[in-house]
Amino acid sequence: MAMIEVRHDGAVSVVLLDRPEALNAISTAFALELTERLRALAAEPSTRAVVLASSGGRAFCVGADLKERDGFTDAQMYAQRAVLRALFDAVRELPMPAVAAVGGFALGGGFELALCCDLIAADAGAVFGLPETSVGLVPGGGGTQLLSRRIGLARAADLIYTGRHVGHAEACTLGIVDRTAKSGAGALDTGLELAAAIAANSPIAVRRAKHALRTGFDVPLAAGLEVEDAAWRVAAFSPDRVEGIRAFTEKRRPDFA
């Protein structure tokens, strides 16, 4: 039975986590299926933005399936580690922007799935946390690195060392949430609205901008500026630049191929 559903809404692709009976806990099979779907989307030129969301409202994803892990040998843990790393890599390596639409619990690996995306949209019921230290583990899906880059080292240390949960209001204050659902709207609606705004722009420019942001963030400024210049050149000498400027002068919406 499929645990991942992919829907296409114009240039936006929605990846729905659909294992509601386990609150989208990441089992080995779940991780393999999600990785496969994400890699297929990465090679899909018509997709300009991706929304990662849950089919249910109770949880976005509660992280690793600890029931499956109960009784794992060291060899089984080691084997699953490779599968999970491939999953988080697949999210981070999407060439188009990805928006996590978080409603309900986003814990452990579920929070890390959201952190691997470019932007996080959430509704008032969203709850975030990295409780790995409470079960004898360290966040292993990028949590120690991505959360500290997003909200700062000390704030990330607070959440990781204590394993505590933070609700929507505190998550906004900390800088975890980028877009909040308006009254009456859910996380998915908000994520779709944000993704649609991204998809309306030049896909070449947006992809190269993502590459420049991701590649240039942790390098010296001079190196980062070279990354930016290379991205600019790809976009500036593309058909999208010609169409974008022509549409601007003709006072119409651009029709990016």
Automatic annotation (TrEMBL):
Pfam families: ECH_1 (PF00378). GO terms for molecular function: enoyl-CoA hydratase activity. The keyword Cell inner membrane does not apply. It comes from the Bacteria. Keywords: Lipid metabolism, Lyase. It catalyses: a (3S)-3-hydroxyacyl-CoA = a (2E)-enoyl-CoA + H2O; a 4-saturated-(3S)-3-hydroxyacyl-CoA = a (3E)-enoyl-CoA + H2O. Its EC number is 4.2.1.17. PANTHER family: (7AS)-7A-METHYL-1,5-DIOXO-2,3,5,6,7,7A-HEXAHYDRO-1H-INDENE-CARBOXYL-COA HYDROLASE, ENOYL-COA HYDRATASE-RELATED. This is enoyl-CoA hydratase. It comes from Actinospica durhamensis.
